[in-house]
Amino acid sequence: MDPEPDEEIAALVGDLVQAARVPAKRRPFSVKPTVERLTTLAYEHGLRPDVLRTLVVDILAAPGVLLDQASLGSLIRNLYPSAAVPDDVVLAIVGCLGQGQMKPPLPVQALLLRWFVLVYHVLAPPALAVLSRSYAVLFNLLDTAGIRPQLCHVLVLITRRKHVRPFRIQATLGLSRQIGHDPHLIGLLRVFKNYYPEVIVGEATRGRASPFKHPDPQWRTHLDEICLTRQHNRQDGEGRNKGANGVNLLDDAPYNGFRVRHEVSGRGRAAGKNRLPTVHTIHAQEESITLEEIDSAASLVAHFETIELPSQLVAVLADPLLQKLLLLRPADEAFKRVDNWLEACVSSTASGDSSREELMDLLEVVHDYITSTKTFPPVFHRFFGEILAHWNGRDKKSLILESLAFVPIASFTETYKATYELLEARLLNNEVTSQLDLLSFYTLVLRQWRITMMAGTDDEAGTKAAVSIKALIEHVNGLVLALIQNSVGTSPSAPNNGGVSTIALMGVLDFYEEVTAVLALRRDDVLASVQELIPPPAAVYTLHFHQSAAVVSRLYAVLANYKRGLEAAMSRRPGRSAAAALALAGTNNSNAQPLSMPLADHERARVNLFNGYLMDVCNCLWRSRAFSSTDTNALGCRVDGAVVGRLAGYVQTLLDRELPLAAAFSLSHSPTLCLQAISYLRQMEDEAMEAASNAGSTTPPLQRRHAGPVTQAALLRLSNSGGLRITWQAYRSGLLVHLEKQHLGGIASLMYNTMKNLMNARASQGG
C-alpha cells in the first residue's frame, strides 16, 4: 500500500537532511531522484508547516550544507507551503543571508528572498513581525549586489513609516550614486519619498525605477489552489480551518481585514482591482498615524481618532481596513471623491473612451464594496444603469443581482422604473430558471429592506418603507404565479421536470417566509396592511397539493405565521383585545378556528380568503372533508363541484376498497404524508415489541400488525384483534410530534394554531 503524500514527503525530507551532511562521493544513494520525487509531491500537495520548517532550517538555510546548487534551487522553486508560514522559517532565512564561508551561495539566497515575495500573502502574523524586526539586518545587506534586486523587493513590501529614518535615506542615496542609479534602489527611494517627501528631493529619484512586479503570478495561483484544497480537506475532516500546527490560515493571513492590502502588481488580481490605486498616504507628518501602520484591531482602536486618511480614497472600494475606517468615521469628502472617480469611469464608458468590458471588470470591485459595507452610494445607480443598458442577462449575473439587492428602501414605483424594470427586461428570457433568479433577487431585496427596518429608528421613514414593502410583495405575487405556472405546467416528459418544479416552489416559499419575517417585526405600519400581503390562492393550493413533504410543511408553517401576523394586527386595533381577535367564527360544530374580526368590506374579503386557506387545509389533513365547501369559510380548494364529483368517481375505480375522495388527502392517506404516517405506527409497534422483550415476556405483545393506511375504524379493529392499542386521537397527536422530529414541523404548527381541540390539549399540557 502506497504511503500518504504527507508521510512520503516527511520521509524524503528526512533522507535529504541526512544526505546534506555527507559529501556526494560518500553518500549511499543518489540525491537527484529524491529531490525530483520531493519536488513533485510538493508541487502537487504542498508542504506542511513542520516539514517546511525542517526543509528550510536543516537544509536550505543551514550552514555547511553539501547539496549541489541545482538541487537547492529546485527545492526552493517548489517550496509550496500548505498553510501559513511560521516565524522560525522566516528567521532561519534572514539569518542565512549575507557573505561568508558557511552561508548558502548568493544565487540560493536570491531564490530564498524571491520566495519571500511569492509567499508574502500567506506569512503568519508572527512571521510578518519577524520580518519587520529584521528590517535593519535586511537593509544593511543592500551593498551585496548578488541579492540586491530581490532584497529591494522584500524591503518595499515590508517598509512602513517607522522603518524610514534619515540615516537610511542617506545611506540609500549614497549607495545609489555610488553604483550608478540602480533601478531597484530608485524604486526603494520612491517608497521612502512617499513617507518623507520633504527629505528626498525629486532629482534623487529620477530615472528608471523597478516596478517590483510579482515574480511569478502562476506560482502564486498554484499556491492558492494548494492552500484552498488543504482548507477544504481540513473542514471536511475536522470542521475547522486548522492546519497541522494549529495555524488558522484564514484568520492569520496578513490580509485579515485589519491590515492595508499592500498589493504587488501582477499577482493575478481581477482586472477591475488592477485599475484601483492601493492605500497610500503621501505627505504624512512624523507625528501623524497613517493607515498603513495599522496592523490589528487593537491598533485601529488605539489610533482611531488620529489616523490620517490616505491620498487615494477610491482605494476604499477594495481595501477592507479603509472601509472599516470610513464606516466608523464617515467623511463626506471621502465619499464624494469616490463618487467622482466612479462617475468619471461611467462617463468615460458612455462617451466611448473606454470599453464596457472595462466597466464590467469594475463590477467585482463594486460588488465586494457593497456587500462588505452594506451600503449603496447614489453614484452606483448610474454605474449599474450603464451596465444594465448593455447587459446580456448572463455575464456576472450573481454579482449584479447581489449588488442591486442593497438598493436602499425608497418608493417601489420609482425604484422599479429606475432599476428593477430594466433588470427584469435583461434577465427574463421565458425560461423557468430566469424567473427563479428574479424571484431569488426580490427575496434578497426584501430581506435587506427588513434588516433596514429593524435597524431604523425614524418612524416616518419606517412608514414609507412599509408602503414600499407592500408594493414589492404585490409585484412579486404576479411573478410567483407566472413561475408556478411555467414550472408546474411543463410537460411531465420533460427531463428533470420534477426537480425544476420542486426547486421553483422552494424559491416561492423562501420569498413568503421572508414576508412572514417582516410580519414578525410587529410594526404597526406593516400590520396595518397585512391583509393585502396574503399570498394568492393559486400559489397556496398548488403548494398544498405538491408531492414533496418539505414543500407542504414549509407552506403550512408560512400559513401559521401569517395567522399570527393577522391576529397581532387585529389585536392592536382600537377597542379590540387579543382575546376578541381570536374569537371563533363559523358554525358551532366546527372545531377549526379561523380569524374573526370587524373589518371593512375589502379587508373582510381578504381575511375570508385566508380563512378559506385554513379551513381547506384542515378539511384535507384533519377532518377528512377534502374539497368541502359547506363549512363556514371553506372554499373547497377552489375546485368546481362538477370536477369534484368526477374525481370522486375516478378514485373509486382505481381502488380495490372503498375510500371516499374526501379522506384521500388526510394525514394517513395523503400521497405526500402516508409514508410518514405508517412509519410512525410501525415504530410504535416495534417499541411495544421491544418493551415486552426487555420485560422477559414469552408471549408476543402484538398478535398482528396494522397493514395501513390508518383509519379510526381500522385502529379499533386492530385493538380488538390483538394489535396495538391506541386511540385515534392519540395516534394523530403523536403523529404530529413524529412529523416535528422528522423536520416537518410546519404541519404541526398549523394544526396547533388552527384546530381548537389541539390548541386546548396543548394548553392543558403546558405546551
TrEMBL record:
Keywords: Centromere, Chromosome, Nucleus. It comes from the Eukaryota. InterPro entries: CENP-I (IPR012485). It is found in: Chromosome, Centromere; Nucleus. Pfam families: CENP-I. Signal peptide: none annotated. PANTHER family: CENTROMERE PROTEIN I. Belongs to the CENP-I/CTF3 family. This is Centromere protein I. It comes from Sporothrix stenoceras.
